[in-house]
Design a protein that fits this description.
Layout: H1 3-6, H2 11-18, H3 26-33, H4 41-54, H5 57-65, H6 73-77, H7 82-90, H8 98-115, H9 128-138, H10 143-165
Helix pairs in contact: 2-3, 3-4, 4-10, 5-10, 8-9
């Protein structure tokens, strides 16, 4: 859909369509609806980023806690959101061998114990080898660094989800 269509959506439709661009956080979409109209997709994305950036650290951690474990029980039980299921499958999370699945589960648990929120990475921009490597490496980060890194990954996920829903701005034909 074009940004002009986005700008005319009633509140309920707007939240229904864009409510999961930030995983399981439709309140963010609900809040940015009041900032309509957006001049382009970039402005829509910026409104979401600004909302997230304005949250206290506890709110940012809340956003991170809404994300499922990669290759975790939600994937195995089929309870992931449609978006997460597609993103994880594309990254190879649904096709881990036994050793990879075991390592992923162990690292996910260590990460949550250390930081208090799940590991977040833009699965659509990575493959399973990179995801496992990043999960292992990021375990060494400090909590504040990892919270900020996780939020940056949330923003990447949001950007790609928005691009899947809204036509990107046409190039200027001067």
């Amino acid at each position: 859909m074009e940004i002009s269509t986005v700008n005319t959506l009633p509140y309920e439709d707007f939240v229904n369509i864009f409510g999961n661009v930030v995983e399981k956080c439709p309140i963010i979409t609900a809040a940015v609806w009041s900032r309509l109209p957006f001049v382009n997709l970039g402005a829509f994305e910026a409104a979401i980023s600004e909302f997230i950036d304005a949250l206290p650290e506890s709110g940012k951690e809340g956003i991170l806690r809404c994300h499922p474990d990669l290759a975790g029980r939600d994937l195995q039980s089929g309870t992931l959101t449609r978006e997460s299921r597609e993103e994880q499958a594309r990254a190879g999370m649904a096709a881990l061998d036994l050793a990879e699945a075991s390592r992923m589960a162990r690292l996910n648990n260590e990460y949550k114990e250390r930081f208090g929120f799940p590991f977040v990475i833009c699965a659509k921009m990575n493959d399973k080898a990179t995801i496992l490597q990043q999960l292992s490496e990021r375990l060494g980060n400090e909590r504040a660094v990892e919270r900020a890194r996780g939020i940056e990954e949330v923003k990447k996920i949001c950007r790609l989800r928005l691009q899947g829903l809204v036509l990107t701005d046409a190039p200027n034909k001067l």
